[in-house]
Specification:
Elements (H helix, E strand, L loop, with lengths): L5 E6 L7 H14 L3 E5 L2 H6 L3 E4 L26 H13 L4 E6 L1 H14 L3 E5 L15 H22 L1 E7 L6 H10 L3 E3 L9 H10 L6 E6 L6 H11 L4 E6 L11 H19 L5 E6 L2 E6 H6 L7 H9 L2
Parallel strand pairs: 1-2, 1-4, 4-5, 5-10, 6-8, 6-9, 7-8
Antiparallel strand pairs: 2-3, 10-11
Length: about 325
């Protein structure tokens, strides 16, 4: 394998708080270990369009506290084509980039895996997604900050729910994973969480109504994982039709969940993972995602990170059920 001298770094897909801390850590750890660094702007589109600049330690000064990503981000349709990936590879070689560090979620790491296989490019992934849905790591960059954002929003919604004696269905992000919904429900004292991992033949809405609101409560908060078919609006409409005696409202938190200054936990996680990415390159690793398990840095094959399902701790469902009586 050719000696790696220059490392390219990009952020792809949805932004998450802590990406800048990861960019900073990768850049400074790389320079400290004798590598040169080039920042690739706007994700894989930046590789395709040659939007690439040399990075020094000064480029990443005063960014650890900032949300979003200084490298910008995008979802690239062109990169999903062989022609687009060929352009990206040609620009990578023209810029003398020997290895690629990709910060992003499932789609971003899928792109890295395909790119690595087609062109034999060493790719290292960092789990940058608020959803916490990548296999092999206990936490992903941005998850903790988003969890806190949801909690603070629900705290405020609770005031209105109590004042008006309403049921609020609060929809949060997470795609096909219920980590945000389940844990924010516990953190905010919500009465229920409706998540894909708890889907059974039983009617989750009927269970909630029967367990909580009918007994002693005149207001309730239900956290719902986003879904095109069964989101917060779906359950609110059902309550209006099936239980018209209740006053129901919906709050879809949307993209405010992505923004904001990263929490201390996300800054530390991103810094450790960024430094871990450079150590992985020094160790001769390729096509792995850097994760954390039991507070230890681990190398997870990218194919496992994106293809294996990350299970939610089912005891959390029991905890919420018991505490919401």
């Amino acid at each position: 394998m050719a000696k790696i001298k220059c490392i390219g770094i990009l952020t792809s897909g949805g932004d998450s708080p802590g990406m800048n801390a990861a960019i900073r850590a990768v850049t400074r750890s790389a320079i400290c270990n004798g590598f040169t660094v080039k920042g690739i702007y706007r994700g894989y589109d930046g590789l395709i369009n040659n939007d690439i600049k040399p990075f020094t330690s000064e480029n990443v000064s005063n960014i650890i506290q900032r949300g979003g990503t200084i490298l910008k981000t995008a979802r690239s349709k062109e990169f999903t084509t062989p022609e687009g990936r060929q352009k990206a590879y040609d620009n990578m070689r023209a810029n003398e980039i020997d290895a690629l560090i990709v910060i992003g979620g499932n789609g971003s790491l899928t792109g890295a895996r395909i790119f690595a296989e087609e062109f034999d490019v060493p790719c290292i992934g960092l789990p940058g997604t608020i959803d916490n849905d990548l296999y092999g790591t206990d936490l992903t960059i941005g998850y903790d900050t988003t969890l806190n954002t949801i909690m603070h929003c629900v705290d405020k919604i609770r005031d209105t729910a109590n004042s008006h004696e309403r049921i609020f269905f609060v929809e949060v992000m997470g795609r096909d994973a219920g980590f945000l919904a389940q844990n924010s429900a516990i953190a905010s004292g919500a009465e229920a969480a409706i998540i894909p991992e708890d889907a059974t033949n039983a009617d989750q809405l009927e269970q909630f109504i029967g367990r909580g609101i009918r007994k002693s409560k005149n207001s309730s908060i239900v956290i719902v994982s986003e879904s095109p078919k069964c989101g917060a609006l779906y359950y609110a409409d059902r309550v209006k039709k099936e239980y018209p005696e209740y006053d129901v409202r919906v709050s879809i938190l949307g993209h405010l969940q992505r923004g904001g200054s990263p929490s201390a936990r996300d800054r530390i996680l991103a810094s450790r993972l960024g430094a871990g990415a450079i150590q992985a390159i020094l160790d001769g690793q390729r096509n792995v995602m850097i994760g954390v398990k039991n507070d230890q840095i681990v190398y997870v094959p990218i194919v496992d990170a994106i293809r294996k399902e990350k299970p939610i701790d089912k005891t959390l469902i029991k905890v919420l059920d018991e505490l919401s009586i």
